[in-house]
Amino acid sequence: MEDAYGRYDTVPTPVRGVHSRAYAEDDRYAQVVEGVKAVERRRGRAPRLMVAKMGQDGHDRGANVIASAFADMGFDVVSGPLFQTPAETRDMALENDVDAIGASSLAAGHKTLIPELIGLLKEAGRPDIKVIAGGVIPQKDYDFLRDAGVQGIYGPGSNVVECAADVLRLLGHNMPPAGEDLDEAPN
C-alpha cells in the first residue's frame, strides 16, 4: 500500500509558551532554563533533542507534550514524523546533528526498535548521541533497555522539568539535584 499511496507522515509540531507560562514562578524550571543557556554558551548552540516515534505507534500526544516542554525550556527540538523506522530516525538525527534522541513508545516496540536505533547510531560512528526512552514502558523492561544502551527512561507521571534536568546531566552539564540552588553548583 505504501508503494501505491505513499506513507502517512504527519510531523508533530511543538506548541510554544504553554510550559513557560505554567512554570513562570517555579524555581526548578528556572534552574533548567539557566542550565540550557549554560550548555548553549559552552557549545555555541542550544542542546538539540529529537523526539522520535518509531514503528506503528501513532500515539503522539505525549511526544508533543515533551517536545513542547523542552522547546519552552530552550532546547532546540526536532520532531520526527510518526511511523519512522530506526534507520530513518538515525538518518534524521545525523542530518540534524542532535545531541539526544527521545524515543517515545506506547505500542510495545521499545524492546526491538530502540536497541536497533542504538546499534545503528554506533555503526554510523555516533555512539555519543544519547538515547532516552519515554512512554508506557513496563518497569520490568527497564534493565533490558539500560543494558541495550538507553541512558534515561521516563514513564507516565514523570516530571518533565526533572526529565530535562536529567538530559542536561547526560549532556555533561553539572545540573544540581532538585532542591539545590543553581548558584551553589559549578557549571
Automatic annotation (TrEMBL):
Q: Any idea where the B12-binding domain is?
A: 46-178
GO MF terms listed in the record are:
cobalamin binding; metal ion binding; methylmalonyl-CoA mutase activity
Q: Name one Pfam family in it.
A: B12-binding
The record's Gene Ontology cellular component field reads:
cytoplasm
InterPro entries associated with the record: Acid_CoA_mut_C (IPR006159), Cobalamin-bd (IPR006158), Cobalamin-bd_sf (IPR036724)
Q: Which cofactor does it need?
A: adenosylcob(III)alamin
Q: Which UniProt keywords apply?
A: Cobalamin, Cobalt, Isomerase, Metal-binding
Q: What protein is this chain from?
A: B12-binding domain-containing protein
Q: What is the lineage of its organism?
A: Bacteria, Pseudomonadati, Pseudomonadota, Alphaproteobacteria, Sphingomonadales
